[in-house]
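User: Please predict structures.

Assistant: First:
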Amino acid sequence: MGSFLELEHVHVARGETVVLHDINLRVEAGEQLAVLGPNGCGKSTLIKTITCECYPLAQPGTRVSILGRERWDLAELKRRLGVVSPELPGEPTLKTTGRDAVLTGFFSSSTLWPNLTVTLEMGARAEQVLELVGALALAEKRVGEMSAGEQRRIMIGRALAGSGSFLGPADSAAQNRMLLLDEPSNALDLGAQQGLRAMLRRLARQGTGILLITHHIADILPEMERVVLMREGRIVADGPKAKLLTGPVLSELFGVEVRVVERDGFFHAE
């Protein structure tokens, strides 16, 4: 299937401060993994580097390849990547219905502007995505009137529709099977978190690749076998979940005493 992401000796500065140090990371297309670390460790900057919102310092040996290419038209790359951030949707999106918000993913736009043409194929795909993320009942509801959990479902549907990550009943393969989630459970209550994780598990079982950025170990799905640990802008460990999600490892990572328990395939810190 090939690689989704290859980072070699990547250093990234924000302002005058270097926040990512010598990052080496390879993610296969369709792979499901989590990047875990405390707040301020550089996880969100890593996502912004993947989406080319932040650029590596020009140094010998530095290499960035996304979907097998080292050079991209940014508008095209934005359409190919299914990225979901914890921020609320912008004002234009808040005024649209759930269905229209999903459709904007095809154009990487904030709303369906008059110059954009929605094809019958796009409409059918949007309905499939709404069904997959459990949001058919939200199709006619305005995004601004939805709960935070409902908005998160719609934004994930938007990312899936636009990136081609969605595997619907009629799809035998995905054009791009990666979904990038930056702290997806932030601002969600316990019920919404549970619903979100159940939805992401369905996506994972259907073959959608997921790169999850989080500081909550409970967000890490049972389907994810690989975990990358970050601290102070560096990758400090990369390996099997069973080896890294332990009390001693996480206590060192977060700087506090952590006890880990596993229930139904999910790990929890106590």
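Second:
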Amino acid sequence: MALLILIRIFTLMEITFISDTHNKELKIPKEHLPGGDILIHSGDVSSRGYREEIYWFLDWFSKLDQYTHKIFIAGNHDFFFEENPLQSKELVAQFPNVTYLEDSSITIDDINIYGTPWQPEFNNWAFNLPKNGDKLKAKWSNIPTSTDILVTHGPPFGILDVAPYGNINVGCELLTEELKRINPIVHVFGHIHYSYGYVKHDNTHYINASCLGEDYVYKNLPLNISLDKSTKDIIFR
């Protein structure tokens, strides 16, 4: 019995998901970030994407020592990463315990995590590409099928993507199609604050981890899971 418990402990990966903090990360109580193996942020770390805002976020993010690994992507508010790619890399490099993913991946304990910031074009925000266009399709086509955890800023069409105005789905249709090929264990995103939550569809666990509500006030708890690396199932904790 003790051996079975030990085996289970070593096969579990403790992960926390957050998104859309918009420089209000200090509003998140410490007890809402219990610690674990990995903390993943799905973009919109800033309000307007100024360098100072990115620095403030990185300073906070890097000091969350209760997590072994800290990973984030940019979102549509995070202009600095798109407009100043070299400077943004230099800035992140000042925080060596933080990993930034942009159309790239990292493997931690045999779990492959891929992050990409792109989304369908809307109001000239950062990392926008024409809706249903070839450039956006190419971004999704580059996501490896070996991906276990997919981190995007925007949602796929029809899954946790309902906007409050008009009550319509605003996710990406092309991403929905590519997910059939990728088939990740977890797909985490944010962007649409109103649709915070969780749903399982087919074999994938979908998480909208937006921390702020539509009023940009912190109200949505970080989502903490245990990922069983042997069964590829998750448990909320």
